[in-house]
């Protein structure tokens, strides 16, 4: 994925979060995270990503 594609997907996610509203955004992000985990399908990589996200939060 190039930078433009990443930006387009991130923008689409932001629009979906806005449309979902405050309560729906949490559910959407949870569902997105689960779907991404299933696609990545690598437990060690996912654990590292969770740690990285927690450190940067």
The gist of it:
The protein is an all-alpha fold and 57 residues long.
Walk me through this protein's architecture.
This protein is mainly alpha-helical. The protein has one domain. The protein contains two helices and no strands. The model has no long low-confidence stretch (mean pLDDT 97). This is DUF2783 domain-containing protein.
Strand content: under 5%
Report the radius of gyration as a whole number of Å.
13 Å
Q: How many H/I helices? A: 2
Mean pLDDT: 97
Helix content: over 70%
Characterize the overall form.
globular
Secondary-structure element series: HH
Largest sheet: none
Quaternary organisation: single chain
Domain count, please report it: 1
State the secondary-structure class: mainly alpha
Q: What is the number of E strands? A: 0
- Uncertain regions spanning at least 5 consecutive residues: none
CA-CA gap between termini: 24 Å
Protein name: DUF2783 domain-containing protein
Organism: Eoetvoesiella caeni
State the main characteristics:
57 residues, mainly alpha, 2 helices, 91% helix, 0% strand, globular
What does the secondary structure layout of this molecule look like, with pairings?
Layout lengths: L2 H38 L2 H14 L1
């Amino acid at each position: 994925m190039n930078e433009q594609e990443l930006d387009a997907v991130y923008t689409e996610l932001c629009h979906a979060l806005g449309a979902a509203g405050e309560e729906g955004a949490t559910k959407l992000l949870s569902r997105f995270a689960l779907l991404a985990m299933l696609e990545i399908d690598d437990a060690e990589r996912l654990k590292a990503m969770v740690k990285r996200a927690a450190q940067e939060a």
